[in-house]
Amino acid sequence: MLHAVLHPMVAAPTRKVLFVCTGNACRSQMAEALLAHHGSGRFEAYSAGVQPAGFVHPLAIDAMKSVGVAMPFAESKGLEGVSDQTFDAVITLCDVAAGVIDHAAWSGHPHVAHWPLPDPVAHPGTPQERAHLAQLVARRLDAKVRGLIALDWSGADRATLQEQLDRLGQI
């Protein structure tokens, strides 16, 4: 008679990801909400700004509604609000943030990637054009975040995982 050997399910470790942009009012807020929404408890999502605006822009909230993701607890915060955390990845979403982030300063030596996206808030167009851009950025972030979730965080070596995170910045 064959007996099944039951092994306790070993849960994959929760991965912590920080998204950074200039004001933490739009792009990084959307990325945080998307990862929290799609991460299924496998990820902890955070966001911060190098010069926090102090509010979440209505463009971000409306764009996220258009992709079916709520942002009820979103708040703009600076890097000092997360400086005591250890992250698996720090992802910058604008050139300003990418130029300011000190890679060596983060404990745990996280992967650092740059996913540059235009800022809907700073877009010089009409309110309708800014809203359209915010929705486009939300959809692009959605694709990038889904790609991030699909990566083999436990099996891939560090260099491969870094390459894959960098590649997501190009989609």
Question: Topology of this structure?
Answer:
Blueprint: E1 15-21, H1 27-38, E2 43-49, H2 58-66, E3 89-92, H3 95-100, E4 111-114, H4 127-150, H5 158-168
Helix pairs in contact: 1-2, 1-4, 2-4
CATH architecture: 3-Layer(aba) Sandwich
CATH class: Alpha Beta
Shape: globular
The overall strand count is: 4
Structural class: alpha/beta
Biggest sheet strand order reads: 2-1-3-4
Query: Uncertain segments of ≥5 residues (pLDDT<50)?
Result: 1-7
Largest sheet: 4 strands, parallel
The CATH topology comes to Rossmann fold
Summed up, the helix count is: 5
Order of helices and strands: EHEHEHEHH
Question: Can you characterise this structure?
Answer:
The protein is of the alpha/beta class and 171 residues long. The protein has one domain: Rossmann fold (3-Layer(aba) Sandwich), CATH 3.40.50.2300. The chain has five helices and four strands. It has a four-stranded parallel beta sheet. The chain is globular and about 45 Å long.
What's this model, at a glance?
With 171 residues, this protein is an alpha/beta fold. The protein contains five helices and four strands.
Core attributes:
single chain, 171 residues, alpha/beta, Rossmann fold, four-stranded parallel beta sheet, 4 strands, 36% helix
